[in-house]
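Example record

The entry below shows one chain as it appears in the dataset: sequence first, then structure tokens.
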Amino acid sequence: MLDPAGRVIMVSGANRGIGRAITEKLLSKGYRVSAGARDVAGLKDVLAPVANAHLLCAQYDAETRATYKAWVEATLTTFGRIDGLVNNAGTSNTFSIEDGDEADFDRLVTINLKGPLFMTRLVMPHLRKVGHGRIVNISSLSGKRVANANVAYAMTKHALMALTHSTRRIGWDDGVRATAVCPSFVATDLTADVTKVRREDMIDPADLAELVATAIALPNNAVMAEMLVNCKLEDLF
């Protein structure tokens, strides 16, 4: 396993749910974390219990491209390097083939796909330098199969899988490894209205965060390209 000491990991959507759990988990393991979210003041408030010199809170808004480069620059100014990126920020809606406004579709593409794509482009030169760069894309089992009518969400998550494997391909010779973490229902705000699975049966964000930390810590010769994480029986497995 790679030593976390000195390694700098950027985490998007760090203010709640999975992103917050990942940030807290990485800090507890000794990583330096650059946490990104739209509302920096709110981000600082929620992370106050774990804040220390290893934490940077910065603005990242997938719908505002200027924040991408500014976040990378702030991370480099504070920590001097970047060893990993967790593309966690994402959203969902009910856009289907037969219903929904085009603007809703475009918003999902921007947040769920363009954000990870262009953040990856910005950090790749820095990940190549360290020889063990890591990118973890928080996808979904909806990126591996289609189980409902929410086609825009499934399309963006399927595309995120392609981005992950493309990243592995272009970065491999320089030690950059990419992993897609594909959970089923996670007990976060995003699944607050889900009734098909009981809340207590959903994946705990802290458990998912442990898997992300594992993906980041595994050595170059033992990295998983995909982690499929289920909380109920799936035909996919």
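Notes for this example: Strands lie at 8-12, 32-37, 55-59, 84-87, 134-138, 177-183, 226-229. The helical segments are 17-28, 40-47, 66-79, 102-130, 151-171, 205-217.
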